[in-house]
Amino acid sequence: MMYVEDKESFWENIYLDNDAGWDLGGATPVFERVSEELKVGKVCIVGCGRGYDAIMFAKKGFEVTAIDFADTAIGDLKKMAQENKVYVETLKKNVFDIPHKYYGQYDYVIEQTCFCAINPNRRKEYEEMAFRLLKPNALLIGLWFPLDKSKLDDGPPYGVSEKELKIFFSERWDKEKEEFPSDSIATRKNREKLIVFKKINRFDL
Q1: The pTM is what?
Q2: Please, where are the H alpha helices in the chain?
Q3: Domain encompassing residue 124
Q4: Adjacent-strand bridge partners of 67
Q5: Which residues in 51-185 belong to E strands, given as ranges?
Q6: Cβ(48)–Cβ(24) under 8 Å?
Q7: Is residue 22 assigned to a domain?
Q8: Going by C-beta distance under 8 Å and a sequence separation of 6 or more, which residues neighbour residue 72?
Q9: Residue 203 pLDDT
């Protein structure tokens, strides 16, 4: 079944209408801080939008793949990468259609406003996607948002609950870190939570 959120045109029209409420206009402060705590490696940013975080990670020496399927978002990211003289691999794809060659390639998958943007009926597929992309013992670093909304309410964004997250990411993951960030932007403070999940090595792709 195809949901409206699975259509490229749905997201492209939001950009064309200048209605991308998730767009911060710059790198996410929480991820800027977290990046300083990480060993440099390969990063995949799913639902990257205009890719401010992709540019930030690339500037710090990470090897970055940024995935989105809105033309405007990917086009703007490519321009910013040129302007900042960094290389970011861009992949214009639905996050559920990522080619197999990317499986098992990443030390980190970065999540922000992608999980809440997909139809809630596809959330188990999201977990599978993240698991496949990561190397053994690698990290899914998520700013999970919005925690103050039900997934049954109209979206996107669809609400996210900590209980649901911990169910989805229980069997094949260990929880490494959990906090309400003090450096969340004002409009998201206490509405998003940083939770880092570690892929458990004993499971195959």
Answers
A1: 0.95
A2: 8-16, 29-35, 52-59, 71-83, 123-133, 162-168
A3: 4-16+29-199
A4: 46, 91
A5: 63-68, 89-92, 106-112, 134-144, 173-179
A6: no
A7: no
A8: 12, 15, 16
A9: 56
